Amino acid sequence: MQTGIANFDYYNPTRIVFGKNRLNELTEMVPKDKKVLLLYGGGSVKKFGTLDKIKQVLKDYTVGEFGGIEANPTYETLMKAVQLVREEGYDFLLAIGGGSVIDGTKFVAAGALFDGDPIDMFGQGVGAHRPIERALPFGTVLTLPATGSEMNSGGVVTFVEKKAKLGFGSAFTFPVFSILDPELTYTLPKRQLANGVIDAFVHVMEQYMTYPVGALVQDRYAEGLLSTLIEIGPKVIDETNHDYNLRANFMWAATNALNGSINRGVPGDWSSHSLGHEITALYGIDHGRTLAIVLPALLEVRKEQKFDKLLQYAERVWGIQEGTADEKVEFAIKKTGQFFEILGAGTHFSDYDLGEEVVDELVDQLEKHQLTAISERGDQTLAISRQIYQKALRPD
Ligand code: NZQ
Ligand code: ZN
Predict the structure, then answer these.
(1) 54, 141, 156, 157: which to mutate for ligand 1, most atoms within 8 A of CB?
(2) Residue 125's pLDDT band (boundaries 50, 70, 90)?
(3) Once rounded to an integer, what is the mean pLDDT over residues 60-70?
(4) Once rounded to an integer, what is the mean pLDDT over residues 235-243?
(5) In this structure, are 345 and 204 located in the same domain?
(6) What is the span of the domain harbouring residue 66?
(7) From 203, 287, 289, 291, mutation site for ligand 1 pocket: most ligand atoms within 8 A of C-beta
(8) Interior angle at CA 361, CA 357 and CA 365, nearest 5
(9) What is the pLDDT of residue 124?
(10) 3-state secondary structure of 186
(11) Backbone angles phi, psi at 209, to 5 degrees
């Protein structure tokens, strides 16, 4: 176990272009000689006019389009984009959308130049796992604050036939730039706003809720983000509230939650995501909601291992000063679940009409994907993950 702050490098090459009405600046950031492919999802960017605006700004460029990237983007769809890029020689990609479109674009950027079959970017029983060594340059226009994908180098892809949802990443898959216009979030429905708040919150928790190593900056930074999300979350999910600062704070909090700044030199525990991805892969539940199911149960089951940090979280983030250490920790875990519920996300499988049958199926999936020794200590076995799923079945 790590006892102090570990050595680290910190390099994030993504240029953030934050604020209102900045799409015009695309012409300063996309090199003039590039053949540009615009990638987007199921149509929100068409419906709300963002795609047209971007096409207008890029009218002097050679531009193509690839739409239809699903939420939880699939390998099958993304490979069609890889083929298009290879056949037609696109050399700059522009993602317009949320985490799914951005992740998908990262995959296409790397897949188009991958030596051999891009499935080998992945391991865990799906591919041979060879490193990504190059990728096409790409930018993003973010429409959904949630994943942090706009300022990190990772992505998650769903394999429909194999029923798997797996991550990839590399030093070559950072966006060159990301345009973050909070006004583009005004068209989001409540469900996606809530998913975004929860996803960002859990990203911070996974880089914070481990054991103390004396990293004061990282801890306070993480606590600041958690407190911000708790403060603004209930207002953010009001889809009719178009207060600019509210959405700007939400957007910047979500980006900072997973842009590699709060986890430098500290232990991390990505097991909520690992357990959550299996739920999406089998039952199609939104990413944010899977985390609302897993995290509260995980904190209960792993209370002992995470006790010191849980107490710090209780006191500093939730301001709980009364009671014994045990009571404070219990209360903080309860508050966490309640927070997700206030945002409208059920925290148990029973809220999604799922029961007992899920436990074996999900544990089998974890085993298949070699997720048998996870968490900050590598001691979360399948038996412990089973306990977590079990605990999340229904309220006690
Ligand atoms: O597809 P369209 O029509 O664009 O609609 C989308 C989609 O249905 C809609 N939407 C997006 N922006 C909108 C909008 N609707 C109205 N107005 C707007 N401005 O929202 C729906 C969900 O979009 P999606 O991109 O799927 O959501 P999110 O940003 O939550 O991304 C989820 C994906 O990101 C992965 C998840 O696993 C999941 O596959 N993650 C990526 C991470 C990363 N790269 O670092 C980390 C995360 O932990 C996460 O795993
Ligand atoms: Zn996430």
Answers:
(1) 156
(2) confident
(3) 98
(4) 98
(5) yes
(6) 15-184
(7) 287
(8) 160
(9) 87
(10) coil
(11) -85, 75
